[in-house]
Amino acid sequence: MAASVEGLAISEALVSDGDGMGAIEDVLFNQALYREPLLMALRFCFDECERADVEERLDSFLKGIDATRPASSLIESLLATGGLSETIVADGVRMTRSEYEALHADAEDGGCEQVFVLLRTTQDGRCVAGKYSTSNRLVGLFVEHPELSGVYSAVLDFCNEPKSYREIEIYLGTSFSAFVAGKGERPLVHPSFVLEGLQLTGSLSWAGGWKTTEEGRAAVASLARK
Amino acid sequence: MKGMNISRRTFTKGSALAGLGAALGIGSTGSLVHSEKAYAEGEAEVKATCCRACIAFCPAKGYVRNGKLIKVEGMPGSRRNEGRLCLKGLSQPQVVYHPRKLKYPMKRVGERGTDAWERISWEEAIDIISTAIVEENKKYGGASLVGAAGGGGSFSLGDGAALVNQLGGYNFFEPGGAQCHTPRQVCSSAATGLKTSLSIADGNCQEIYFPELTPMKVLVIWGNNPASNNVACGGRALARLRKQGVKTIVVDPRFTPEASKADVWLPLRPSTDVAMGMGWIRYIIENKKYDEEFCMKWTTLPYLVNPETLYLFRADEVIEGASHDDYVVWDKKTESPKAMPYPWDDNLDPADFGTYTVTGVDGKTYESYTGFQALKDSVEEWTLEKTAEVCWVDKADLEAALELYTNEEYAGISEGVAGEQAPHAMKYSQVALTIDFLMGNVEKPGVTYNQFGSGMKHTAVSPRKYVTEEIAANTIGTSDKYRVMFASFARTVIPSLLDALETGKPYRPTVYLDFSLNKLSALAEPQRWVEALKNVPYIFQTSLYMTSFTHECVDVVLPTSDWSEIDLKADGQINSAAMVQRLVHIGETINVVIVCGMIARACAEKGMEFPKGALEKWAVTDEEWRESVAKSVLEGTPLEGTMDYAQLCEYLNENGPIEAQSPEKYRTFEIYKSIDSKTGLPLGFPSPSKKADLYGECYLRIRDTGLPFLDFDLGELIGPSASNFSPTLYYEEPGETPMDDTEYPLVYSSGRFPHYHHGTLRNVPYLREIMPAPPLWIHPSTAEQYGIADGDWVKASSRRGSATFKAVVTQGVNPGVVMGERFWNPEKLEGEKVSGGWTEMNMQCMASAQPPYCPESGSYTLRGFQVKIEKGEKPEGVWVEPEDFAPWMPEPTDSTEAVH
Lengths: 226, 900
Known about the structure:
The structure holds 2 protein chains of 2 kinds. Chain A is α+β, with helices and mostly antiparallel strands. Chain A contains 12 helices and 8 strands. In chain A, the strands form 3 sheets. In chain A, strands 3-6-4-5 form a 4-stranded antiparallel sheet. In chain A, strands 1-2 form a two-stranded antiparallel ribbon. A two-stranded antiparallel ribbon of chain A has the order 7-8. In chain A, α3 (35-44) crosses α7 and α8 (134-144) packs across α12 (214-225). The model of chain A is unreliable at 1-16 (pLDDT under 50). In chain B, α4 crosses α21, α10 packs parallel to α16 (425-438) and α18 packs across α19. Chain B has a 7-stranded mixed sheet, with helices on one face. Chain B has a 6-stranded mixed barrel with strand order 23-27-24-26-25-30. By secondary structure, chain B is of the alpha/beta class. Chain B has 28 helices and 30 strands. The interface between A and B is large, with 33 and 40 residues.
């Protein structure tokens, strides 16, 4: 059953569990920091691409989030859990890693001349990427906190241009009663609760300020149409 | 100075026996086996230090040969430990040379829960940590950062908390806090304004260290066990007092070493301490055993209560033109309410008990009553019969204990952690304090509630430094409910934080800076923590070892120095000043205080703003730190200002701790009666009424304002606490109780053993050889019922999880109770790698971080929950045989220079 709120629904086709989705999801939720780059890796590899290219793009992203794990580690996790599949191309011949290693072990001259690794997202990986698309996660957030759906939308709109935490705090405190407190009162909702919620959907990201992502903008537009 | 010449092997085994001997108050040198000299005479350099294997700071001697620590032993001549040291301190060479001691900063390069690490430089490590702190602060403000320290043994408790607050972080916690120390300290501080308490473990109750002077006749040891937790100082001191005739009453579910020597042992049902205490109070009031003079003149008990607000009436609320500073009594002479000026008006004859009709200046009529009446009413149902029945003790034993305690002028109570590890934490401490104060056992010779040291006067509680209005208004669990925690370093309430990490409400910290070893052995329901911490993007740790917490949760781990590698002021000395002196240095470890400074400065360089003057207080270099330590050690001593660090070390090595003054001058009594030169009146207690608030108005003040632990009124900012603070005593059955639980019929409780301190030292091979697995004490009849024999593996299960123990079948517990270890978490090894290892023998998997909580402190259930037991099997991979521990045998390495 797909979750829904006010007519919004998460795509049924994408949330149906493949057999291997659980292991990929475990990796995805092992550490919040790596959720977006892991999903990014799955999305990159919908079309087969070179591992070196994926690593380069991922490493660039990881550097921006102060990560300790290198891109290669994330890719290995996705390979180990079946989110990605790997093909070794050695001197133009496609083979598995074990085939390549067997071949390489036997080679007296130390191996092949030209070797590169290709990655492709598996069907389970595609299901996971779909299930946790920004759009689906944003709908999930609205379902979980319908009382804040207006706030979430407004913040995404407000952050079309990068905004500091303080700017958002002031904006919320002057625009929504849940964030306003009189003397001797506590606000009902903390601004960080809203920001973290949106960040975890991939609709908001930090780039020297909070900024709505392209995926977030598209998701909001899609939701608005519905 | 010369050491005993014994081999390392026999030395350690003998040391362990000596420690156990000390625990039992028996001589122990006969246990040592002499051997060939381990080193030539005069070859070892002997340095004066203090042991920091627990919180006791026992003065000690460290033997260093060729740059290697070869032995630690007690320092003769010290009043605190009189030359003794327990097996925890004696183990230090094995600790510091443990083959798995962390020597370099490491960063995670694989998934959490795997063993993929890479050595990095300090520079890179600090850059990673400071960048995350600064960037996440930009994203989420003060909500982003949570810090944590270890329990009382931690030497980073105050520094870690200060750093986090200086960085604007709203949250800092430690696994003790609400579960240890804070309730007892707050009860005392809130009631009297003083920093002292009834806790031997915290360095209070110092009268016990003056056996040649004290007239003490009776000591009640309630929920603490100095022979295990404070072996060489408190436990030793009590052994000495018993030897000279002091009688003891031990209130403890387990037949502890203290219980084995007690005149009366009350093996109460776990978590019924408040019921027991209320029974004591009723007996004291009913039999007029209380100190009437003290209660009437120096407590709030005779003051009238406003029945609507439950606050004490101020005189201007009842009497036109009267002072707001005065309270109101019912004058029996005139049969009317009268203002009672401080300290006392001999023309008045205040009622002790009773309910009286009072008309306020607002014209309203109140059925008011005295604080004494409120106390009496609260304990009314607790007859000895009912107390004995509820607490599972023998009524005759209960009466014997009460007669012993109440018939002796020189008596006192020592309380401890046992009652604080349950939701009744604050009321447990309140009953203990109330009993001793009712008896007038306050600031007198022969009692435990004292504050010694002529320089101390009345050292009043001070608000937490660096806790701003913004921080106080946002601290998870504490700001809106459990405001007692503003009194402690551990301000954030643990189950509230766990809830926040799980749900994101009210917000979720995104950087967790941990200054401890292994939270998975110290927090209830580690299975929930492991899952919840996956939601935290950045987790950094300072540690001595990689632990299962490191393995499961941490991204960067910094190698911090153990106590034998650092200089530190030794607090809690008895009429003397002493210092932990660096003996060796291993690898790239750094003193955690300097690590805090490194993080602070790196954050400042990245643009983080600090409170004025805060940044400058962090020591930049080791030399700066050493000189600051030396200065603080010498402060208040006759040698203040006369020497630098090097000279102080030389002095201490030659002479041992610096005696501050004569014992007679040090033992100061009845400070509250001394005359204040400014007012010409007695000094009183540093509380709002200048009296000891036995009625309990102080709790309402904390509820409504956060005072006196904050230096601003939190109520004005965000309103009163939503939690139900009560000034008076009440008893509630534990959340899980044997009275109605047939599925989990046994009460699980726990206590200390002398081998280990908190969650530490489980990786010391010699200690593990003595105590290889966590014991579970089971009564013979219970063991028979479940088919369990002494030495069997036993699986215990609660509604939350299971753990495995080794059965100790003994009559030392009630048939309805099982008693186990408090912390246990074998660091399982798989080849050279550490595994999770936190589920197999970890009682915390059974404990509860779920409601009910203490209304004032948020304390949760680490003891006194229901379990069932069955015969179990040895968990796969855990080590229990002596030869198993061979990979942990010490590998002495040369000392290295500090890298900073």
